[in-house]
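Complex 311.
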Amino acid sequence: MQANAVVIDKYGNSDEFRDQMVDIPELRPKQLLIKVAGSSVTPFDIGVRSGEFSDDFELKMPAITGTDVAGEVVAKGSEVDQFEIGDNVCGMVGVKGFGAYSDYAVLGQSKAAKVPNAVDIKSAAVLPMTAIPAYNSLFDLGKLVSGEKVLIHGGAGGVGSMAIQLAHSVGAIVYTTASPRNFDDLKNLGADKVLDYHTEKFEETLSDMDLVIDTVGGETYKHSFEVLKPGGRLVSLVEDSNIKLADKFNVHAMYLSGKFDNPLAEVLDLISDGEVKLNIQKEFPLTADGVRDAQNYYQSNHVFGKVALIK
Ligand SMILES: NC(=O)c1ccc[n+]([C@@H]2O[C@H](COP(=O)([O-])OP(=O)(O)OC[C@H]3O[C@@H](n4cnc5c(N)ncnc54)[C@H](OP(=O)(O)O)[C@@H]3O)[C@@H](O)[C@H]2O)c1
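Predicted structure with NAP bound:
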């Protein structure tokens, strides 16, 4: 069986994307074949396409990229026991696998979740790479509990806007940094206080944080140590842990990596209940032209939430 896929032949800019018919691989025992309804643009996908991560993993060219996926299960491996053909699911496609920028994608069952009827497929398509890192950093690593104070940097981003809602949903007091045009929207998502990262030094305003989630890095990461209470936790999605600063401020520094339980089902339930929502700023067709335009749009605009790719 063949599928039309958006492929790249080498690392480079978004002009590398082109459409090509490709053979769909045989499924491994725990894999699902998904008829793709949608995907998204993530900073990770852009880094993969440009070759930023080629020292860590080499893509076999021509490569199908795209990490987020939502769609219908049309075939399943012999050991799949959590999903049926016809289920609508979403999940995170393995980077070296048969990516989401395609008519069909191959998804491991441990990376998937059923999409409840109340959740529209577009929201499901942009969810995995926001919900999984946000949940893992807040709860699996950050151990956030009700009543604690958490500072979430990059609140208007895909991960930040999800983290604000998840932290608010467990009763945390949420501080975030963002650009002023997003302040009202971020308060509506559950942020208790929003700071303008262009004009305000958060380290001069905030103190006694239990947890900081850093999606920005650089000086933002370094100054984050200063606002934690002794024994506080700093989880970065972008910087390796700075043990010197952690010792100096008597706090715990962690980098988000490693394997945790898949939290997608829990977040999908929160979306069903109306407690969490996804903001899709713009959508593009899931074709080579669409992926190129979508990644260019993402890179030249300050997106609030997500850019979607829809079949
Ligand atoms: N380690 C992991 O497993 C993992 C997983 C997912 C993501 N990540 C990384 O996490 C980062 C964020 O991902 P994302 O999908 O949320 O990206 P995104 O959607 O592009 O959002 C980035 C946000 O950061 C804001 N920002 C930029 N500079 C800032 C500053 N100095 N202070 C506060 N906010 C600032 C931007 O606001 P403006 O637009 O207003 O400038 C934007 O809203 C990326 O680098 C990504 O690669 C890592």
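The longest helix spans residues 128-141.
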